[in-house]
Amino acid sequence: MHDNGPTHRLSSPATVQSDPAGWFERLYADAERGEAVVPWDLDRAHSLFSEWTDRARPDGSGRRAVVVGCGFGRDAEHLARLGFATVAFDISPTAVRAARRRHPDSPVRYETADLLDPPADWLEGFDFVLESMNVQALPAELRQRAIPAVGRLVAPGGALLAIAVGRRDDEVVEGPPWPLTRAEVDAFAAGPLTPVRVEEIVVADGGIRWRAEFRRA
């Protein structure tokens, strides 16, 4: 899920909890037919991601990157422009087909895949992993599995950048989405990953966003 700001509910909790993968595919399929609008369909990289790359200036030369839940590809194209050999995947086949159509000359490899069951050669296979606004769209049981699954894509010496809408520990929400607590953000540092910087960013409406960087030795 790629959204620069809104935290509006996208569907009923029961619908997403019963079939989260199917719900995303139906949304993208409806949008393809002109019957729905994908709220995170913007023509630029997520602002918190582009700000981070402006600051960190990562050199993608000779390095592999992966974008989790790529949607229509805006973040993946940004990574490719930085020189990374980029793979971008989504669980929705319709989203992947649309990304390929939108970027016909792109060097990005767009794939349909499931974060919870990725291709074996993706595990520990990427020097840079971007997770932007995706796991917050998952119900609690899947979210607890998805957070460490993101980290398993990071190669030795690699980095993970996670971006999410945030909430306070005592804040109750009825998703989706389900904004992440600080503890959930910290949980990305599973196994060999360690936190480098976790930023709590207050936005115009008073809400918070997390931008968290992790590295693997």
UniProtKB/TrEMBL annotation:
<dbReference type="InterPro" id="IPR029063">
    <property type="entry name" value="SAM-dependent_MTases_sf"/>
</dbReference>
<protein>
    <submittedName>
        <fullName>Thiopurine S-methyltransferase (TPMT)</fullName>
    </submittedName>
</protein>
<keyword id="KW-0949">S-adenosyl-L-methionine</keyword>
<dbReference type="GO" id="GO:0032259">
    <property type="term" value="P:methylation"/>
</dbReference>
<dbReference type="InterPro" id="IPR008854">
    <property type="entry name" value="TPMT"/>
</dbReference>
<dbReference type="Pfam" id="PF05724">
    <property type="entry name" value="TPMT"/>
</dbReference>
<dbReference type="GO" id="GO:0008757">
    <property type="term" value="F:S-adenosylmethionine-dependent methyltransferase activity"/>
</dbReference>
<keyword id="KW-0808">Transferase</keyword>
<keyword id="KW-0489">Methyltransferase</keyword>
